[in-house]
Write a structure and sequence with these properties.
The protein is built from 12 helices and 4 strands, in the order αααααβαααβββαααα. It is an alpha+beta fold and about 350 residues long. A 4-stranded antiparallel beta sheet has the order 1-2-3-4. A hairpin with a 4-residue loop joins strand 2 (about 220-235) and strand 3. Helix 3 (about 40-50) crosses helix 4 (about 55-65) and helix 4 crosses helix 5.
């Protein structure tokens, strides 16, 4: 990093002070608290936790406040803070089959054991501005609700009983850790899923939409979408067994996709999978669609050159922190670089002008 103008340090300090003033806004208006952000902007908090790879609603709310609502900046703050935390152990894989579901729907089967639970969703709202919210009054109390508890079988198990869907792969080998090791190609599915779960939501959505538009011919049904809390267990060597250390809210999506079969596999349905921190269903569905598109090689399908089928393109461009850093660095001083480019263009113009004069003289 270099400073090409005098007084750069003072200018930066003034910019920071101005930023703090803009962040606070009109002091006649009550300051927004961390608790308010956490409780009333929960979807923004969930996205920051998911793409920041750190499950802590309070810290995510703090990052949103500090970033003035810029979620990518907030994700950057959370990622940076995460690197300072010691790692004292590894939790066991969570069992989503025992999820206490606040929301559980299927687009493939109407009648499910335990029923479908709409939960808190925008799906059936009219998308009209509710000016009652501007009055800042208390809303009517919501009806009593209970989350589904106990064993909640996945919808794909119904298809699996008839052998109509590929078997879910179970690999006991420890997966690579994207937060501690750089991404390398070729990337196995476990690593791809890690990258997708913390990928930018908009980028992932765009890729998923492209598969539905025909770029990868990936027609999918939402086999199941479920949102709820699951316990997190950790094995304690001193005790010799695992104990619950807390719980997290997750959104899980399994898609059911067409598959014509290959030389080694009969016609059947295949799976796409998405799992994200918090209530984050748009991201989970998008992730499942892109996951399925990236599986073309292992399923023996043709690569049609679709963006969502190109693992290098998807995984190297999905991370919004890397993208932001590379994009925004071009607004920093590049005076020396530009002067060399400027001098090169002037030289080429002089040479071109001299050539024109010579041709005219001849």
């Amino acid at each position: 990093m270099y400073v090409a103008v005098k007084g750069g340090e003072r200018a930066i300090e003034n910019a920071h002070a101005w930023l703090a003033e803009e962040r606070r806004g009109d002091t006649d208006v009550a300051e927004l608290s961390i608790v308010q952000i956490r409780e009333q902007l929960s979807l923004a908090v969930n996205r920051v936790m998911a793409e920041g790879s750190l499950y802590d609603p309070d810290l995510a709310a703090l990052a949103i406040k500090q970033a003035r609502g810029d979620l990518i900046e907030a994700i950057f703050l959370i990622r940076a803070y995460r690197t300072t935390l010691p790692r004292f152990g590894t939790s066991k894989p969570v069992e989503t089959g025992t999820m206490a579901c606040d929301r559980r729907i299927s687009a493939t089967f109407k009648d499910l054991p335990g029923g479908q639970v709409l939960g808190p969703t925008f799906d059936y709202t009219h998308r009209l501005l509710d000016f009652k919210l501007a009055a800042e009054g208390d809303l009517p109390e919501a009806p009593m609700r209970e989350a589904q508890v106990g064993e909640v079988p996945h919808v794909t198990e119904f298809l699996n009983r008839e052998g109509l869907i590929e078997e879910a792969l179970h690999d006991d080998a420890p997966p690579p850790d994207l937060t501690r090791e750089p991404l390398e190609m070729p990337a196995e599915r476990a690593l791809r899923l890690q990258a997708l779960t913390r990928a930018d939501e908009g980028f992932t959505l765009g890729l998923a939409y492209s598969t539905q538009r025909g770029y990868a011919r990936n027609h999918a049904f939402v086999g199941e979408l479920r949102i709820g809390s699951v316990p997190v267990e950790m094995h304690i060597p001193e005790l010799g067994f695992a104990i619950d250390i807390g719980e997290v809210t997750l959104t899980e999506c399994e898609t059911v996709n067409q598959f014509k079969g290959s030389k080694t596999e009969p016609p059947q349905f295949t799976r796409g999978y998405g799992l994200v921190f918090g209530l984050n269903e748009r991201k989970a569905i998008s992730m499942a669609l892109v996951d399925r598109a990236l599986r073309w090689e292992e399923l023996g399908e043709d690569n049609e050159g679709a963006p969502a089928q190109d693992a290098e393109f998807v995984l190297y461009h999905a991370d919004n922190i890397q993208a932001t850093g590379f994009l925004e660095h071009i607004k920093l001083p590049h005076y020396v670089d530009f002067q060399s480019e400027l001098e090169l263009v002037r030289k080429l113009r002089r040479e071109a002008g001299a050539s024109d004069v010579q041709e005219a003289a001849e």
